[in-house]
Amino acid sequence: MREYNLCVIVIAALIVTQVDRTLATLQCYSCNSTISESGSCLMSPSTENTISCETQCYTQFNAGNLTRGCLESEASCTLPSCSSCTADKCNTNVVCQECLGLEECATTNVTTTGYNALCPENGQVCVNQLNENKTVTRQCGVACAAGTESTCSSCTESLCNVGLYPKNRRQCYTCSGAECNAVTSTSVAGCSQVDAGCFTTGTSTSNMTRGCTSATTGTKCAADSSDPSCLVCNSDFCNSLAYQRDAGSCIICENCAPQQVATEAKSCGEAQYNQTVGCYTMTSGTNVIRGCLNALEAGCSTTNSCTSCSENACNVAASEFKCIECISNEVSGCWSASDPATLPAVSCPNGTCFSGVWNELGVRGCFTSASHLMQYQCTAKVEPHQCITCTESLCNKVAFNGAGPLGQVGVVGLLMGLVIALRSAL
Ligand SMILES: *[C@@H]1O[C@H](CO)[C@@H](O)[C@H](O)[C@H]1NC(C)=O
Ligand SMILES: *[C@@H]1O[C@H](CO)[C@@H](O)[C@H](O)[C@H]1NC(C)=O
Ligand SMILES: *[C@@H]1O[C@H](CO)[C@@H](O)[C@H](O)[C@H]1NC(C)=O
Ligand SMILES: *[C@@H]1O[C@H](CO)[C@@H](O)[C@H](O)[C@H]1NC(C)=O
Ligand SMILES: *[C@@H]1O[C@H](CO)[C@@H](O)[C@H](O)[C@H]1NC(C)=O
Ligand SMILES: *[C@@H]1O[C@H](CO)[C@@H](O)[C@H](O)[C@H]1NC(C)=O
Ligand SMILES: *[C@@H]1O[C@H](CO)[C@@H](O)[C@H](O)[C@H]1NC(C)=O
């Protein structure tokens, strides 16, 4: 009997120790944080205290509150708001931004609480993935594989997958209507295409539209738009010009090749968002014209012998010194020079032009390119050559006396022969 009793006591003791050990061995983190406080229970649970639990640990995320602790046996814990686990210190689940391939997952910073999601398993990390259709998927998952850095980014702390992804995604002012003339930082948005352009278009201060060329809804300008009302630029926040802006001041004059006085610059008025602001100097034949870029419809480029600059009153420099260069048998109008703007011109850095008659041909050019004999005959005013020199740009436009018997165009080749003959004569 005694032996039997002892036996019962031993068995009972064994059961009790067994139960005790089960109760005492599972350690769970026990803490709470609100999302708004970003407390350590959310951000670094492994630094929190643990408690002994009976069977399971849990992590619960509900209306912005995160709680970790022991799951009571009768309590229910189901996804998506609650996750349970049975290993020591297993309730370390993070909270990530979850946004699955919608346009807004790429075009906004995705920071609002509506995107917060509890990761179903501990050990999961936050992942941002660039999809083939250029959208972004943000979610809980496994860390990105090596070699996928250009399309995948992962991080281990709660809510770490916020912000634009990729970080170098194009950002443009995005707005329309009355509030869209003077831009503010609140209207910045990422573009659905990583390398989109930014556009500006509109008809008045109260009807501007700005955005990414990759936008899929509403008024927009394509990246390669030829619509003159569309201004497209290719850097972050570049589409900021107001409908109208002060166009600065420039020298405005015609026939004004020499150096100009900067204080005589005049106002250029207002420029529209799609007009360039700055000053130009344009050579048209023998005429030099200066003015405001916003008043130059054709634009300013080498094809119209135009140079530009961007500061106020910057178009003051004397224009390049040039001479008319022609021989009367080759270039129509060279003999009379009655329409000098139509005659070819060359640069002449030395600043002296000449015109004269040799072998009954009218010759005009830069003095330093004439042969030594011609230079001598010109300087000595040897009579039949009617040669004169002058020192203003494009000044060698005096008509020659007489009809110029060989003065017709078309004796091709004679020019070169003549020049060679004249040059080798001395
Ligand atoms: C949250 O944790 C604090 C101590 O850090 C505790 O006083 C409070 O009761 C906890 N609240 C919940 C809902 O667990
Ligand atoms: C979340 O926590 C705050 C303060 O800790 C509390 O006022 C609120 O009722 C909690 N909400 C839920 C759904 O538990
Ligand atoms: C883009 O691709 C992702 C992933 O394949 C998909 O979830 C999403 O619906 C797609 N979005 C669009 C706008 O096609
Ligand atoms: C969005 O994120 C970008 C960088 O990722 C940052 O420059 C910008 O200020 C953020 N915008 C807002 C409204 O948080
Ligand atoms: C506003 O601008 C758009 C183009 O950007 C144009 O189609 C529309 O007619 C304009 N509305 C008014 C009232 O001018
Ligand atoms: C600017 O846009 C207007 C239409 O809004 C257009 O008529 C004009 O030609 C454009 N100017 C330039 C320089 O493209
Ligand atoms: C002017 O001409 C002389 C001789 O032809 C030459 O040595 C000199 O470099 C020229 N000066 C300029 C500014 O071109």
TrEMBL record:
Coiled-coil zones: none
Protein name as catalogued: DUF753 domain-containing protein
Pfam family, one: DUF753
InterPro entries in the record: DUF753
Organism lineage: Eukaryota, Metazoa, Ecdysozoa, Arthropoda, Hexapoda
Keyword terms, alphabetized: Signal
Domain DUF753, residue spans: 171-239
The organism's place on the tree of life at top rank: Eukaryota
Signal sequence region: 1-24
Organism: Drosophila yakuba
